[in-house]
Write a structure and sequence with these properties.
α2 packs antiparallel against α5, α2 packs parallel to α6 and α5 packs antiparallel against α6. The longest helix is centred in the first third of the chain and has 28 residues. With 158 residues, the protein is mainly alpha-helical. It is a multi-pass membrane protein.
């Protein structure tokens, strides 16, 4: 089994777990709606964090952006289930993506609150977003391969 950040192993895909949300009476379609709403809330929080950035509140920006990212990440529990998400979050295929993402999340918060440097905060947020996309792509069959091909074609067209 490949173990690495650029792994293209697909045997550990996140499929829907029907048992996790049964106790709340959520069927498959309701869980898909809940995923969409939760993911959208996370994205809205991340987008609204730019208001803090515009006002010069770097710490508020980093905190709200990171909370938005975490809400978006936790929206996956409606798709794959809570136990499976926490079981597979550090699976070999996504170990480094998860580790880098969580490290960047903490680093973004700490450095933004302590240093209050706009440039460093924006760079960390961009890299954090890229790590989240790479992590999420590991749940989509051939998701990482699509990202590689897209950026590969962009580079070769330059």
């Amino acid at each position: 089994m490949p173990f690495g950040f650029f792994s293209s192993s697909y045997e550990d895909q996140g499929t829907m777990d029907d048992g996790t949300w049964k106790f709340l009476g959520l069927d498959r379609m309701q869980r898909l709606y809940a995923f969409g709403c939760c993911f959208l809330i996370g994205m809205v929080l991340s987008i609204f964090s730019t208001l803090f950035l515009i006002s010069g509140n770097i710490a508020g920006f980093a905190i709200l952006y990171s909370i938005g990212n975490l809400v978006s990440l936790l929206s996956m529990t409606f798709i794959v289930g809570i136990p499976k998400l926490f079981k597979t979050i550090f699976a070999p295929v996504r170990f480094w993506a998860t580790t880098i993402y969580l490290s960047l999340l903490v680093l973004t918060l700490v450095l933004s609150i302590l240093l209050k440097n706009v440039i460093i905060s924006i760079i960390l947020v961009i890299v954090q977003f890229c790590a989240l996309v790479w992590y999420a792509a590991s749940y989509i069959p051939y998701g990482r391969e699509l990202i590689r091909r897209f950026f590969g074609s962009c580079i070769t067209s330059i």
